[in-house]
Design goal:
CATH topology of the largest domain: Rossmann fold
Strand order of the largest sheet: 1-6-5-2-3-4
CATH class of the largest domain: Alpha Beta
Number of helices: 17
Helix content: 40-55%
Number of domains: 3
Radius of gyration: 25 Å
Order of helices and strands: HEHEHEHEHHHHHEHEHHHHHEEHHEEEEE
């Protein structure tokens, strides 16, 4: 790497696309332009074994910088995973055994290296430094921050106001994550906007302990397939990076049209100028959203599988979901209610509940909101629809029914 070697277009891609905020951006740009390889910190909590496309947003940014010659330091949070950290639902995570942590970490890293180059990554375990910690070391960390500072963290603040319990161990988590930056002499730490407090504590601690302060690189949180909440395995609105190609493609096709441009921006390398044209075409309704979504599906599947798998997944989707070519044994036959084929609107929810394709009207409402009820491949927009003989109703990914003529 040489000084001032970054062209303006590349620099803008790094600091603007798929980026929520950089603290401090001017310092980060200066470090890039100096040409010295930077130590890029990415930590993960192995409380779960799998990662999803929401994690991939940050991993893709790391890979861009890795390809420029910078060093990725992957920290396995084996120590903090055994302590517990508040989740996005304001509930403490279950403590894990060392064996559970290691098993989760091995699975996680297999998926991590689908995006990041393993040969250019240094993997470190927190136990390498915390295993040597004494009580005096812990006290030295705790004296550097106040309880008031930690209660300013959004999750803690909400729980404190609601008079919900906050364990002392939870207050230690940001300190331990911050010390990771000291242990590896991090130059830049990466995380989602929900990690802002913890990452900034690391920057502050480095300054207190005489190190150069790390830059803090925040990525936006990817909205899940429900189009409402951030992608999360616990919410069931995720697309896993280790899922089979057909499953991955099908989930991409299930996202609301309103999310497409965001997914293109955060999860693909389609040029920004082309994305701008796509957005204009969407607004002008001069392009079929389904065709853009198929391109998105192919791109994402190809990243985690290969191009052939992406094309095969698309063909499977078209055959199964768009043309209704589902194996007959997998299709429930529904005798058409009175009025079918005469242009009358029918209560699809009532039909699905009656035939056992959903457990209740409430479930049908939820699936409708998620775009998971389709008629001949098109998402149902309301509980009422005009049904004709031969229509295929799809509920979720695996339940199908065909409207047939009433028995005479």
């Amino acid at each position: 790497m040489t000084s001032n070697a970054i062209d303006p277009r590349t620099l803008q891609k790094i600091i603007r696309r798929g980026v929520s905020e950089i603290i401090v951006e001017e310092e980060f740009v200066r470090l890039l332009q100096e040409g010295k390889p930077l130590r890029l910190k990415m930590g993960f909590d192995p409380s779960r074994p799998d990662i999803h496309l929401g994690h991939a947003v940050g991993l893709r940014k790391l890979r861009q910088l890795q390809d420029m010659g910078h060093k990725v330091i992957l920290i396995v949070g084996d120590w903090t995973a055994q302590i517990g950290d508040p989740s996005g639902q304001s509930a403490t995570r279950q403590m894990l055994t060392a064996e559970e942590v290691r098993a989760n970490a091995e699975t996680y890293m297999t998926q991590f290296f689908k995006v990041i180059d393993k040969e250019r990554t240094q993997t470190m375990w927190q136990s390498e430094w915390f295993g040597k910690f004494s009580l005096a070391n812990v006290f030295d960390l705790t004296r550097r921050f106040t309880v008031a500072q930690f209660l300013a963290r959004d999750d803690f603040a909400k729980r404190f106001r609601a008079q919900q319990p906050i364990a002392i161990t939870e207050l230690l988590y940001p300190l331990l994550q911050a010390y990771d930056s000291i242990a590896i002499e991090s130059d830049v730490e990466f995380g989602g906007t929900d990690q802002m407090f913890n990452i900034l504590v690391g920057r502050d601690l480095q300054g207190m302990m005489g190190q150069n302060q790390q830059q803090c690189f925040f990525m936006p949180l990817l909205v899940g397939t429900d189009g409402v909440q951030k992608m999360s395995k616990s919410l069931g609105n995720y697309i896993g990076v280790d899922e089979p190609a057909n499953e991955m493609y099908g989930k991409v096709m299930s996202i609301p049209d309103s999310l497409m441009m965001n997914y293109f921006e955060l999860l693909t390398d389609v040029p920004t100028e082309e994305l701008t044209e796509m957005g204009r075409a969407m607004e002008a309704e001069s392009v079929n959203p389904m065709e853009l979504k198929k391109r998105l599906g192919r791109d994402i599947v190809a990243q985690f599988h290969d191009q052939q798998a992406a094309l095969q997944a698309e063909a499977t989707f078209e055959s199964t979901y768009q043309r209704g070519d589902v194996a007959e044994e997998d299709i429930t036959l529904i005798s058409a209610p009175a009025g079918t084929g005469a242009g009358l609107e029918l209560d699809v929810f009532a039909i699905l509940v009656k035939e056992g394709l959903v457990g209740s009207t409430s479930e049908a409402k939820r699936l409708l909101t998620q775009g998971a009820i389709k008629v001949d491949g098109a998402a149902l927009e309301s509980r009422n629809a005009r049904l004709e003989f031969g229509n295929v109703i799809q509920v979720g990914r695996r339940r199908f029914a065909r409207i047939v003529a009433p028995k005479s």
